[in-house]
Each structure stands twice: as structure tokens, then as C-alpha cells.
Design brief:
The chain has 214 residues and is α/β, with parallel strands linked by helices. It has 9 helices and 6 strands, in the order H-E-H-H-H-H-H-E-H-E-E-H-E-E-H. The protein is globular and about 55 Å long. The chain starts with a helix and ends with a helix.
């Protein structure tokens, strides 16, 4: 869909619904490459050679990083100890953005879509999140700290998310969600209110507009 078609789509939606389409954009492991960033953080912290980090911190087979054959941590306490330390020492300031995320979000905003960052992060780290958004030129002026209960949020037409418990809750509530492909969410069943994408750019825009076209 080219930029003219995207604008036209947004205008039609606005005429039909009395407002612009609103997208709930998850941050971690969806817009931000949080797993890759944490692999680097943990590798540096534990002095794991760069050549060995992919083996030491492999792609996950479970959403919880302490569960499964490919777990990074021994248990939840081990994970929380390391991750809380990272959060409190600037991790969110430098986590990389997935390729194409910023330009795709700017295309959506430019076409008239409303974008809301919806994150399970604690609002304790809101200042770091805002600085990260600004430094990466992401058009996300509104942040909602939702925990995992994103299905309770009203006024959002389509969510973009990676977390299986969030996606399951959204679909059970009759909401629409673009599943951002990660190794740990591939067992989720196909659903008429869900689309799956393997990255940003045209596939993301197509998935969003298909879910909105109802």
C-alpha cells in the first residue's frame, strides 16, 4: 500500500467511525529489540565473548526467560535480579530499535493514524522511555503503562504485540492484534482477529489495515 492509499484508507475509517484509527504499539521485543539488547547487556556483564553469546543466550522457546530448554536464567529470581539491575542502570536508554520500525510508525502517523505506546514496563522508567523514544525519532507521544491487561484498554482498534499472554488476553476479549513474530510465540494458534508479521515496513502496514477493514 503506497502512501496515497494509506491516507485514503485512514480517511475512510475516520468517516465511518468518527475518529482516526488508533494503534496500540508495544515497545519491548516489538518496537525495541529488547532480547538482542539484553543479550549484549548480559554478555558484557558476564564477560561472555561476542562469538559465544548466541549460544549462551539463544532464541527463546518460552516467553519467560527462565523456562524451557533454551532458558537464559535458572529461575524467576535469577532473571529479576539481572533484569532489574539492567532497568535501573540505563538499559532502556540504549536498547536498539528494530529495522524499519521508526519509518513505518512515521508513515502511519503521517497518514493520519493515532499511535499510542502501550507497554508492560513500570512507569518508574518513564523518563528513560521518553528519552529513548525521542532519540530514535519515534512518533509516540502518548505512553500507557498497562501491565499485561491490555485487553482492558478501550479506544484502541489494533494492538501490535509479541507476548503470548497479552495476545491471548486480547483475542479472548475480541480485540484485534498484529502478532510480532518471535520464536516463543509461534505456537499461538491462527485466529481471525490476528495477523502475524516478521518485521516492519509494508507487511506491518498490510496486517494493520486488514485487521481494521471490518
Amino acid at each position: 500500500m503506497n502512501s496515497h492509499d494509506l491516507v485514503s484508507f485512514c480517511e475512510r475509517f475516520t468517516e465511518q467511525h468518527g475518529r482516526a484509527p488508533r494503534i496500540g504499539v508495544d515497545l519491548d521485543a516489538t518496537t525495541a529489540d529488547t532480547i538482542g539488547g539484553l543479550r549484549t547487556w548480559m554478555g558484557d556483564k558476564l564477560a561472555v565473548p561476542t562469538s559465544e553469546r548466541a549460544a549462551r543466550f539463544p532464541d527463546l522457546d518460552q516467553y519467560a526467560m527462565w523456562i524451557g530448554d533454551r532458558a537464559w536464567f535458572t529461575d524467576m529470581s535469577d532473571f529479576m535480579g539481572h533484569f532489574s539491575h539492567a532497568e535501573r542502570n540505563g538499559f532502556y536508554l540504549n536498547v536498539p530499535v528494530f529495522a524499519g520500525a521508526a519509518s513505518t510508525l512515521r508513515d502511519l502517523e503521517g497518514a493520519g493514524f493515532e499511535l499510542v505506546a502501550v507497554t508492560a514496563r513500570s512507569d518508574e522508567f518513564n523518563a528513560d522511555t521518553l528519552q529513548w523514544i525521542a532519540s530514535n525519532n519515534l512518533p509516540l507521544s502518548t505512553i500507557v503503562h498497562s501491565g499485561f491487561d491490555k485487553h482492558a484498554l478501550e479506544g484502541i482498534d489494533v494492538f501490535i504485540d509479541d507476548a503470548p499472554p497479552v495476545i491471548t488476553g486480547l483475542l479472548k476479549a475480541g480485540r484485534r492484534v498484529v502478532v510480532f513474530d518471535q520464536s516463543y510465540n509461534r505456537a499461538l494458534p491462527v485466529h481471525e482477529h490476528a495477523g502475524r508479521v516478521h518485521g516492519w515496513g509494508a507487511p506491518m502496514i498490510e496486517a494493520i489495515t486488514l485487521l481494521l477493514d471490518f
